[in-house]
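Translate sequence into structure tokens.
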Amino acid sequence: MAGDLRIPFTHEDRDGDVVVRVKRIATGAEAGFDILANLPFGPEAAAGYPSMSATLVYAGEGYRQLMGWIQIVHSVRSWRDGRVDEASEVDLGPVWQDTDLPFLALGYLPSAFDAPARNLRGADALDWRADMFLTTVPRRTRAEPIRRLASFTWGYRETDTPPEPPTVFPPRRTEHDAWTRALDLLRRRFPGWVWAPPG
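Result follows.
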């Protein structure tokens, strides 16, 4: 187990906790890679990589339970010849790519899951880190701002040198400054939504 974390939050005058678990998967099937079509690698190749799950324990009922998850991935790929490629992107599932929705997951007491694997893309090393934000979701109109409720960071490092498994970074709670750093990207990528400043 790479790490578990519990983060308190308040939403609509009710208290709750985000329960985060980051662990190293033993087999690709454990994370569901065996049901994903058109992967460029077999499920067994995902063994040793991390998986992240985030669930909610929350006292609110009914419409109070509507929330969302936003994940921003920061990747730094490097080569032995000194080249470095850095990128940050809002992480969306493949079927969400053509929509204007910024959420990795949303719903009533939404859970979130991710299991990144084999993302070197020809580089010699990769540092992969993600900022996860539990947020409000507008109920009636996009004029309602999306606000951060809680957040954490997690990730891993991999190299092209076997047989060492990837290094898994345990989850760590983040504060308002992580949301501040994310806002420029979110406003550029999703200008049709209103993004609330920290506070």
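Note: Residues 36 and 43 are 9 Å apart (CA to CA).
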